Hints:
The complex is a heterodimer.
Chain A: H1 2-56, E1 59-60, E2 67-68, H2 76-85, H3 90-97, H4 99-132, H5 138-146, H6 153-164, H7 169-176, H8 190-215, H9 218-226, H10 231-259, H11 263-268, H12 276-286, H13 290-320
Antiparallel strand pairs in A: 1-2
Helix pairs in contact in A: 1-13, 3-13, 4-8, 4-10, 8-10, 9-10, 10-13, 12-13
Chain B: E1 23-32, E2 35-45, E3 50-55, H1 61-69, E4 76-81, E5 84-85, E6 96-99, H2 111-121, H3 126-139, H4 155-168, E7 173-177, H5 185-202, E8 205-210, H6 213-219, E9 222-227, E10 230-235, H7 237-242, H8 247-252, E11 257-266, E12 271-275, E13 280-283, E14 294-299, E15 305-307, E16 316-327, E17 331-338, E18 343-349, E19 364-369, E20 375-377
Parallel strand pairs in B: 3-8, 3-9, 6-7, 7-8
Antiparallel strand pairs in B: 1-2, 1-4, 4-5, 9-10, 11-12, 11-14, 12-13, 14-20, 15-19, 16-17, 16-19, 17-18
Helix pairs in contact in B: 2-3, 2-4, 3-4
The structure holds adenosine-5'-triphosphate and magnesium ion.
Adenosine-5'-triphosphate binds next to β2 and α1 of chain B.
Amino acid sequence: MSNAAAAAATSPSADAAKSPLARLGAAFVGRLVIIIPYLWLLFFFLIPFIIVFKISLSQTAIAMPPYTPVLDFSGGISGFFDQLKQLSIDNYTWLTEDALYFNAYVTSVIIAAISTVLTLLVGYPIAYGMSRAPATIRPTLLMLVILPFWTSFLIRVYAWIGILKPEGLLNQLLLATGVISQPLIILNTYTAIFIGIVYSYLPFMVLPLYSSLEKMDYSLIEAAKDLGCPPTSAFWKITFPLSLPGVIAGCLLVFIPAVGEFVIPDLLGGSQTLMIGKTLWNEFFANRDWPVSSAVAVILLLLLIVPIMLFQQAQARAQEQGK
Amino acid sequence: MKSLGSIRRDFAPWNDPNAKPYIQFDNVTKKFGDFTAVNNLSLTIFEREFFALLGASGCGKSTLLRMLAGFEEPTAGRILLDGQDLRGIPPYRRPVNMMFQSYALFPHMTVENNIAFGLKQDGMPKPEIAARVAEMLKLVKLEQFAKRKPHQLSGGQRQRVALARSVAKRPKVLLLDEPLGALDKKLREETQFELMDLQQKLGLTFVVVTHDQEEAMTMADRIAILDKGEVMQVATPPEVYEAPASRFVAHFVGNVNMFEGKVAERTAKTTRISGATGAQIVVENAGDAAAGADIVFAIRPEKIKISSKKPADAINALEGEVYDIAYLGDMTVYHVRLDDGQMVRASTMNAARVTEDPLSWNDRAWVSFRSDAGVVLTR
Ligand SMILES: Nc1ncnc2c1ncn2[C@@H]1O[C@H](COP(=O)(O)OP(=O)(O)OP(=O)(O)O)[C@@H](O)[C@H]1O
Ligand SMILES: [Mg+2]
């Protein structure tokens, strides 16, 4: 009796004292959850980007690091500002003067665009099939799509050399079955690059497509058929438009890394293919021209930001429509 | 026996032996794996009929509609539409439109385009489509929502779009799966009458699924009562209510009092039933129940009179005690425990504001009814 009375007497005041604190704590945790990813971005994206941007404004030098000026405070504040004055946009003007860079950018974008379309064409039927498969086997199918990630990317691309080279598996098979009489030259061509990119990036296309197709209510297709729409037409009028968010996400996930792709063109595309990732690598490691390669990287980033912004805008618009 | 009739007195093709059935389910069975959703079911629906499928959840109503629309093929039996076997005809070639239980509105299209979808599919000229869409929007009172997307509508509004979309093509047969489930009572009643009106005006055949018996009663020419994939009774609403074919139907539609018993004596005009608990009941319409047969006497609560003294002229009068009273405004429902233990439900219209013979809890009371007030059920 006295216990209960005491509890009744203390509990409201304890509540009153505790709940604002608790609320403050909750608010802080809530903030933290937002702040941590931003700190992450700041440290691992923004700061390195500023360093790269600064290097792109420097000049090459035979030194370590191989550029000047190296910003420091050894000369005090005024010395620091003197160093800043040495920065210039020469490297960027250089990029515009040598057609090599322009061509490399254009080729990269074109190759990435074609590969993206090819990946979409290959990935869509896979994702569609998965989303229509019996619910019990879908997790297995999903697993199979992700399975290649368990092996090193590099090894998988090397494996393609073994398949595509003139005396490789593919040619042996085609020759043996009599489909061709001369081995096909695929390795070290753009075709090999397309094959490599489509193969490597397929999961990035399939997963977002699958997730948007799987959500779709099948009764919509039934309703379309019921209203006189044959299956093919129902696909283009209902299924495809409703999977567009997945199509856009998948295309960007393939296009963006494909533009800067280095390993695939280097290993499968041979020496004469001109992609910006390879150019960057050459500038950096072969020519040891850090400032120019940094400028190449900055331009590449700007080039990629455009599709990302477009994507975000499209998403924001979709959100506004409440989709 | 007086006729129980139909709502539309001039429309009763099911009584006409020469009438040609429009939709025919012939011994249709539908199995999902081992589960039998529809079991050897036969049904006949006539042209221009407003036909309701009534049954508890999971009894196979939607499955029946889906077979008619072409989304499921019967495991056995056949479905005929206007004499043509529908087997193998895909949904998009059937002159049948369906309003889905889940509405299935196209989320990426405006209300307008949802309604126009089927019309465009038919290649109807643009101005005609616009006119038809406007007409449909007016019908479902959604004129000002034409440009909205489905997700910007309330549940009831979505349901009306679904309705408009399915009616827009003026199909020969319109299938409606729980068309009014999400509407509030008032709008629901309004829409019921609008549906009936529409069906009359356009001369369409409607098959509507519902588990709301009042709705089925209001709208339908005939009702099929289903249980576990089988037809229990097909009849007009008054027949279903006043002459249920079985205990199940009597129970399923409306409230009913049931007296288990035996046929004690049959004469030319009347039959005496001896209740299992001792009550003696005299009825006129005992059907084909033979003397000695185990039967159930079913009587609706509103056909039972309740009074504090034994009515002088009543053929059937049983004594008991008032157990419970529910005042519902328009009527009062009494639960009376008879002296033999049987509970009886009697309802009285509150025609006057004050009752002369007020009854209260635990009062002694008499329940009485005429000899033609109930039915004898052998099944
Ligand atoms: N595709 C299917 N696979 C397996 N079982 C199914 C399938 N479709 C329906 N069923 C089963 O068949 C039975 C009848 O289903 P149906 O949808 O026709 O019921 P219903 O009468 O429309 O019920 P409700 O009033 O709840 O809509 C249910 O028991 C259901 O579980
Ligand atoms: Mg249903």
